[in-house]
């Protein structure tokens, strides 16, 4: 089957999936001067130190002084690059966004969407160190009480989901997955499962990630083949007696 729509030349690399269009203008992305490269390397060094601190002590307990010490610099110098923990989180998100973009380009170039999604899932759910899963959960916890962090997390989640939905829509158009699949609903389910994988790995050192991933891939296969209907309202999802599910009606544990 043909790969998803991609145009690639010396001046422009773009991939368009209908709802998401990303354009990288190589003409505007000339090599930065040595000073800029040095600044970028220092920022990445600080972000690496921030990740270590979160994984070791948690987001809430990590201070800017902790990050400065881990990075081997003074607190004053740290503030030149990142004036607050919220800005540090923003830096982590931007760095992850760049990595996600590269991953999505690889999926978009693939003639095997299912295989590419499995490879992408293996990279993020199995090859990602458990410590990074702890880091994500810590940031999610902070998002529950910090509006600034919540806004950043929500924005990146929406962006990633939009990319994934757009990839499924293009895959449907090229005949790589069943045309009747509700892309938004499928990605909603898969995203929730992915969050659950990260959380289980973070909270349970003995969690069998390989088995969890195998189960997740089976659900993904069923979703993208149209075997699992996601458009049915709850009032038609009932048992053989015609009763509503326990979650919708009154539970009858004695039945």
Describe the structure.
There is one protein chain. β1 and β2 form a beta hairpin. The protein is 62% helix and 5% strand. It contains 9 helices and 3 strands, in the order βββααααααααα. The N and C termini lie far apart (51 Å).
**In order across it, which strands form the biggest sheet?**
1-2-3
Judged by helices, strands and strand pairing, the structural class is mainly alpha
Number of helices: 9
User: Helical content, roughly?
Assistant: 55-70%
DSSP strand tally: 3
Low-pLDDT stretches are: 1-36
The fraction of residues assigned to DSSP E strands is 5-15%
Cα shape: elongated
Instruction: Give a short account of the largest sheet.
Output: 3 strands, antiparallel
Helices, strands, pairings?
Layout: E1 6-8, E2 12-16, E3 21-25, H1 34-57, H2 64-71, H3 75-81, H4 85-109, H5 113-127, H6 130-143, H7 147-173, H8 183-203, H9 209-224
Antiparallel strand pairs: 1-2, 2-3
Helix pairs in contact: 1-2, 2-3, 4-5, 4-7, 5-9, 6-7, 6-8, 7-8, 8-9
In short:
The chain has nine helices and three strands. The protein has a three-stranded antiparallel sheet, with helices on one face. The N and C termini lie far apart (51 Å).
Keywords:
255 residues, mainly alpha, 3-stranded antiparallel beta sheet, 9 helices, 3 strands, elongated
């Amino acid at each position: 089957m043909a790969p998803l729509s991609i145009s690639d030349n010396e001046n422009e690399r773009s991939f368009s999936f209908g709802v998401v269009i990303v354009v990288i203008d190589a003409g505007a992305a000339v090599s930065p001067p040595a000073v800029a490269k040095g600044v970028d390397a220092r920022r990445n060094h600080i972000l690496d130190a921030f990740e270590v601190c979160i994984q070791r002590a948690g987001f809430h307990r990590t201070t800017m002084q902790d990050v400065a010490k881990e990075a081997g610099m003074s607190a004053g110098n740290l503030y030149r690059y990142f004036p607050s923990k919220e800005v540090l989180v923003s830096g982590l998100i931007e760095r992850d966004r760049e990595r996600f973009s590269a991953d999505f380009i690889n999926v978009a170039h693939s003639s095997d969407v299912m295989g590419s999604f499995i490879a992408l899932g293996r990279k993020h759910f199995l090859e990602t160190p458990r410590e990074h899963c702890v880091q994500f959960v810590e940031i999610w916890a902070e998002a529950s009480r910090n509006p600034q962090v919540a806004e950043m997390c929500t924005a990146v989640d929406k962006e990633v989901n939009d990319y994934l939905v757009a990839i499924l829509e293009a895959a449907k158009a090229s005949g790589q997955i069943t045309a009747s699949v509700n892309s938004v609903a499928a990605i909603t389910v898969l995203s929730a499962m992915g969050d659950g994988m990260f959380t289980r790995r973070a909270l349970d050192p003995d969690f069998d990630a390989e088995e969890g991933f195998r189960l997740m891939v089976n659900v993904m296969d069923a979703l993208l083949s149209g075997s699992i209907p996601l458009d049915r309202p709850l009032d038609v999802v009932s048992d053989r007696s015609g009763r509503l599910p326990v979650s919708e009606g009154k539970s009858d544990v004695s039945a």
